[in-house]
Automatic annotation (TrEMBL):
Source species: Peribacillus glennii
Name of the protein in question: Flagellar protein FlgN
Pfam families in the record: FlgN (PF05130)
Domain of life: Bacteria
InterPro entries given in the database record: FlgN-like, FlgN-like_sf
Biased composition (Polar residues): 149-162
Keywords from the named record: Bacterial flagellum biogenesis, Cell projection, Cilium, Flagellum
GO BP term, example: bacterial-type flagellum assembly
Record region (Disordered): 140-162
Length: 162
């Protein structure tokens, strides 16, 4: 058995990650603009991409297991390095290239998501500061009598009735 299915799965994973990176870049712009409706739609699109990536990853894992078993190898550990070692030269080159591309896309996605996280955090801080400025502040400066003395009436030290 050849590694064609694994190569196809990795190519699909690279394309899905590239598309997810495009969405992450769009998210940055949407967060900067503060467009919540567009952000909600983008989150729905991201979820679709994540489901597709999950399905493709499961396909890749089953293809790797089948490949290793066809070569008389145990299914675990099923690393890309083991698959490359057992593949033909042309397949090994393609697998190495795809592995590098997938790692590169994952690193880009991680960096972009970190930036988006920071932008959202800063936006939330700005909203909280704005809300704090708009809320009326109940400040007491101890110029009034304590509340329990107001209710009991006058409790002076001198009795004026005497």
């Amino acid at each position: 058995m050849s590694a064609e299915k694994i190569v196809a799965s990795l190519e699909k994973l690279v394309k899905l990650h590239q598309s997810l990176n495009i969405l992450a870049n769009k998210k940055t712009e949407i967060v900067k603009l503060g467009d919540t409706e567009a952000l909600n739609q983008l989150l729905v699109d991201e979820q679709k991409h994540i489901k597709a990536i999950d399905m493709t990853e499961k396909e890749r894992q089953s293809a790797v297991t089948a490949f290793l078993q066809s070569k008389g190898q145990p299914a675990e550990p099923s690393t890309i390095t083991r698959v490359i070692e057992l593949s033909s030269l042309t397949e090994a080159e393609a697998l190495n290239r795809l592995k590098d591309e997938l790692i590169e896309e994952a690193v880009k996605l991680k960096e972009q998501n970190h930036l988006n996280q920071q932008l959202i955090y800063q936006s939330l801080q700005f909203v909280n500061i704005t809300l704090d400025m708009l809320r009326p502040q109940n400040q007491q400066f101890n110029y009034d009598k304590p509340s329990h003395q107001k209710q009991q009436g006058s409790n002076s030290m001198f009795d004026s009735r005497a």
